[in-house]
Structure formats: C-alpha cells, structure tokens
Design the sequence.
C-alpha cells in the first residue's frame, strides 16, 4: 500500500528525493543566474560586475534554540543575516547556496518549513537559490549559507575607508534583537520549571520580531543610490555596535568619538532592558544580531541624510591616537570596550 | 603569568583571535581574487569568465570518522572533494570559503592541522581561501566549503549533453576509496574489542590514500585542453559509478550500455574486495568518494584518447528507450541498479 504523502519520512524519500522536493519550486530570477540547482555546480554570469561573496554557518544550540525558534523564521533569518553582509559591502545579493545538515528528529514537514522561510526571504530580496548540499547530521540542525552578490567597482565599500572628521552613522535602532532573546530565554526558564505555564510574551512584539525575523537593510543601499552617497566605510551590526566600531576603526586606522545620547534605542528595547536591570546602552553596544548598517560618510553628505528618520549620526571619526571613546550622557569620555558576541566565550 | 603559545586554548584566543591565527598565512594568488578575508564579504573579478559555484557540507560521524581520519587529511579531502565538482563542469576552481564548526574537544593544534590540510590542497590546486565563518558547535566537527571557479562559456560542460553513440569514459580507477573505508572500519572494530591490538593496515597503502587523501582530477581538465576535446557531458564520481551514470542519463534523456569487463579496478581494490567477499564490480559501481571524472565524448574523439593510460572507455550512450544496462562478464545484459550513497539511508 502506498503511503500518503504526509506520512512519508526522510528515509522513504532518500537524498535525491529530498533534493527534488526542496528544489522543485525554485525559479531563477536574476540575469546573472545562468544555471542553478541540478548539476555539479551552478553557473553565473558577472561580466560587468564585481562578484561579492560571504559565508555564514548557523548551528543549533549555538546560534539558535529550537525551543523558541519557529522553523520558518529560522530559514528566513539564516538568509537575511547572510545577505546583510553583502549589503554591508554596498552591493546587492543575487544568489545563495545552502548547506543543510539535519538530524533524524527533523520531519519532512520541518524541512519544508525551513525552506519556506528561506524562499520567502529570497523572494523578498530578489535572491536566487542556485545550489547547496543537504545531508544528515548526528545532532541537530546546521545551516551554512554562502551568498554571492554583485557590486560596481566604484560603489563597493570596505571597512577600511573611514577618515578623520567623517560622520559615524547607523541605520534603524539597536539592542532590540538582544532584548528579544533575553525575553525568550526567560520564558524558556519559566516553562522548564513549570511546563503548564504559558509563555508571557505580551507587549514584546517588536523585540521578538527583531530577534526571530530580522530584515536586512536593502533599503539603505537603495537610499545611497537615491542620495548619491558613497559611504567611506561600512559594516553590518551582527556582533554589537561596540565590536563593529572597533572593526571599522582598526581596519581604517582611525579613532572615534561615540555619543551615548545619540545611540538609537526603541522604547520597547529600553523598557525591557530596564526590566532586566540592564543599562539600555549596554544592550545596544554589546547585544548582537541587529543587522543594521554602520557606516561613515564625508561631512559634506550631512545635509543629504539629516532628515532621514531611519539614519542616526552617532559621532565622528578622529585620529587613531585619540582612541575610541564613548561620550556618556553626563559628558564624560571613557574608552569604549568591545565585548560583543564571542562564540567561543559566551 | 602569560601562557605559552602552545598552552593557549580556544577560549583564550576568542573568535577574532582564532580567525587571525588561521588567516594570517593566506596569500591570494589568483587575478580574480581582489579582496579576501577581512571584510563583510570577499570581492572577485570575473569580467570575462563565467562564475561556477559549488557547496559541500561534511559532518563528523556522517562523512568522516575521527577515530581513523588524520585532521590534516580531512582538511585536504574537504577541499579536493569540493573542487572536484568544479572540474566536473570543465572549469577551474579559483576561490573557496570555509564554514567551520568545532566542538570544545578540538584544540588549537587540531584546528591548525585541519587548516594545514586545507591550505596544502589549495596550494596544490591554485585555489585562494577568500572567506568563511568559524564558530563553535555542540557536537563534533562540521566543514562546509563553497568553491567558486571560472569557466569559459564554450567549455563549461553540463550533465545534460550526452547523445546517442557517444562514448562513456572514466578517469582513473574505481572502488578504491570504498575499500579503504572498509579496511579502516574493520580495524576500528578490532581495536574496539581489544584496544591493545595494533591496526593491520599493511599492504593497503593505495586504497587508504584513496579514502583518506583523494585528489581531484585537474589533470584531466588540462588534458581536454591539450587534446582539444570538449566532453558532451560530465559528472564527478562521489556517490559511485552507477549512481552517476543514472544522473548523466536522466539529465541527458538517454540510455547507456556499460561493459563490466571495462570498469577499471586497481589490483589492490580487487584483492581487498575479494577478502571482504564483495564482488569488485559492486565496489566500483556503488562505492563512493572516488572523485574520478565520468564523461561522454563524441566518437570522433576516440583516436585522441585511446592511448591515454588514465582514461577508460566503459561503454556507449544509447536511446533512452534502450534503458541503462550492464553487460556482464558473461555477456548478459541486465538493467543497472543505482544503489550509491544515500546519506539518509546508509
């Protein structure tokens, strides 16, 4: 007797059956995607553009906790987190490959959900899935994504171009993703001590979305083109503002003055931070996964951005010798510390 | 007191320290590698070439067994297995990104050994390491490699171009990697039942090297250029000859006659196969990881290859309706079965 579709298992389907299942709905949309899934490798045509490449690996229990991460959101976030690196080059993501390792606890429906999230993000950001590798794992879920993007030679922005007197600018607001994680972890502890308790997530919609379903800032890259701005340096905020400022300053061989009062923090991030007795500035400086863009621009561009509600000038670049300093609310200057996310220490 | 270098742990070094340690020796060698490690993404220039991309994921306990896999070999094999996919497109690998997940049992020295193997393979095949992601894992070691290569439009070879009367050709010999694995697994069982026993690997050098340190067939791609041959279709043998023949025939919409007597099997593979009571043909058909190239050529090219000691004509392509058949040593034709490696069933 033939099993019904929904009763099929990973074993019934086999490796090639699974590949067919998860790739059948792929449609290539980018001109540069000549051949996608289905051969030994994909073939791309980037004749007049630079090729920009980035890789991220996400591992269950390290980067995400399945007890509170919806699978579709996980797939979505895996894509947005990775393409954020391409936007941080002032370039556009065009293709991704997906390495997926799955333990036997994952059902076909679970895999479908992950891919639904992946495809949704790809559709939103105009990215083609062109290949990958799907395999079993001993423990848990592993997602490794490589994004390939295109950039124009005169637009690609590195970390190393910041110069004295440039303005330090950030998109969106900071610390929300970390506060969302903190709430989810608290509710998990409550649930562990009493599985009959319902999680209390009310009023935390914004920070939960920041943690579970972050977006990448394509709109900011579009804005640069509209405003005819080329940042002098740029990085995306995946490890916390402080850590990223250190990267920019180190690579550019400069110092920086950062004004605490300028750091954009959403009211709900602020409120939750206070509830947890964490200084909201600390959440913004050291909380990770905001996927906002941090960049520097020449002062002459200030007029162009000053009315943008989604961009905030945080401070300015100084000589290297002046160091990297946080000017506190009380106007006291202290050397900034970059704690950030260290996957081997945290 | 400062710890000595060799006593440093992963925790002392931290994520960025580790990245610096494993990337400091990288030198970019390819013209197409404009910017490698050190920014949000790498930047490549492929202005006159097609970009060819492939991704592989290797997971401890699934794809390799640390009890008998030297780490340096593992790094080497992770690269050669992946770049083999690029050669299978009749293209040349130029860059790789490496996603590495490591559990706490791995020391810094272990990581260094893996990278030594990775860099050795990259050096041998002219490939630049341009980026990656290094993170901790809950369990064991995960290596995900994406290779980017360059191909000329008129040379790139897909799986779908085989046509009736083409010759089916394979490089090297088959089944060795599988027999090497079989010997290693036997010795592991012996060692588990009596840890004082020394593994008996004598006389198995060739098949052990096929399993632990396989090469990719760049030389065959070079040969195609020397001989001015463009294969009509090509695939690399990672899952076993039978499985790959099925892929070529399915994609090309053709059938195939494969002659058992023609399948190239090294004497040591043959001998070991007999010791394990496995028909050597079965080892060649269904054993994986040989990383040889299987391709089809127009009959007019036969004269050019007939004296190449490293190429063997295995059979020929037929109409789809004739099916995919193995002509046995006794001249009996039976439909070929593709068992291959199924990572979800085996």
Sequence:
């Amino acid at each position: 007797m033939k099993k019904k579709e929904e009763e099929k298992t990973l074993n019934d389907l086999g490796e090639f059956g699974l590949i067919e299942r998860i790739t059948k709905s792929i449609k290539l949309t980018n001109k540069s995607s000549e051949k996608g899934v289905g051969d030994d490798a994909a073939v791309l045509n980037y004749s007049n553009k630079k090729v920009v490449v980035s890789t991220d690996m996400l591992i269950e229990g390290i980067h995400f906790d399945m007890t509170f991460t919806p699978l579709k959101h996980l797939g979505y976030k895996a894509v947005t987190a990775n393409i954020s690196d391409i936007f941080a080059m002032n370039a556009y993501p065009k293709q991704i490959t997906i390495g997926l390792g799955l333990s036997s606890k994952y059902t076909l429906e679970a895999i479908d959900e992950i891919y639904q999230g992946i495809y949704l993000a790809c559709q939103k950001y105009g990215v083609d899935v062109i290949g990958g590798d799907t395999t079993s794992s001993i423990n848990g879920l592993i997602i490794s994504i490589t994004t390939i993007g295109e950039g124009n030679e005169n637009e690609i922005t590195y970390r190393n171009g910041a110069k004295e007197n440039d303005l330090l600018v950030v998109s969106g607001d900071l610390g929300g993703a970390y506060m969302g994680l903190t709430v989810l972890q608290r509710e998990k502890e409550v649930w562990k001590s009493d599985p009959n308790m319902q999680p209390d997530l009310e009023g935390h919609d914004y920070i939960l979305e920041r943690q579970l379903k972050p977006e990448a800032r394509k709109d900011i890259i579009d804005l640069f083109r509209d405003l005819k701005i080329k940042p002098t340096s740029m990085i995306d905020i995946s490890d916390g503002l402080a850590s990223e400022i250190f990267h920019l300053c180190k690579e550019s061989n400069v110092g920086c003055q950062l004004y605490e009062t300028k750091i954009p923090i959403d009211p709900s991030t602020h409120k939750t931070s206070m509830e947890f007795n964490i200084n909201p500035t600390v959440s913004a400086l050291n909380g990770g996964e905001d996927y906002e863009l941090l960049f520097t621009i020449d002062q002459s561009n200030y007029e162009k951005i000053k009315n943008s509600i989604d961009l905030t000038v945080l401070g300015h670049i100084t000589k290297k010798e002046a160091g990297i300093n946080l000017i506190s609310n009380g106007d006291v200057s202290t050397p900034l510390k970059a704690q950030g996310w260290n996957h081997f220490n945290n």
